[in-house]
Amino acid sequence: MEKTINISVYGSEKKCASCFNLPSAKETFEWLEAAINRKYPNNSFQYRYVDLYTTQTETEKKMAEFILEEELFYPVVCINDEIVAEGSPKLTDIYRKIEENQKNYLF
């Protein structure tokens, strides 16, 4: 049975000081969505972009507070609410975590 993998990208319109040469969090979100859908065209993913300063759910609020308190570089990429990458995400790390989640759903 295939389950949906939730992919969240936390960021802000304002770039963090160390990330000024990188794409915006929103651009990273769009790039990740396209890359993941190309690599895994038959899988079920739920994507969401979360602005750190306008969170909607309690989970989003807690994650945003953690990101800001710990001074993580954003965007921060989470798969099923687990931080996988921050700053400039690497597709290999994200693909590895997706594949781990896929294996967990098989059993």
UniProtKB/TrEMBL annotation:
Superkingdom of the organism of origin: Bacteria
The molecule here is called Disulfide oxidoreductase
Q: Could you tell me which Gene3D superfamilies the record lists for this protein?
A: Hypothetical protein sa0798 (3.40.30.30)
Tell me the SUPFAM superfamilies matching this sequence: Thioredoxin-like
| Transmembrane spans | none
A family per Pfam: DUF1462
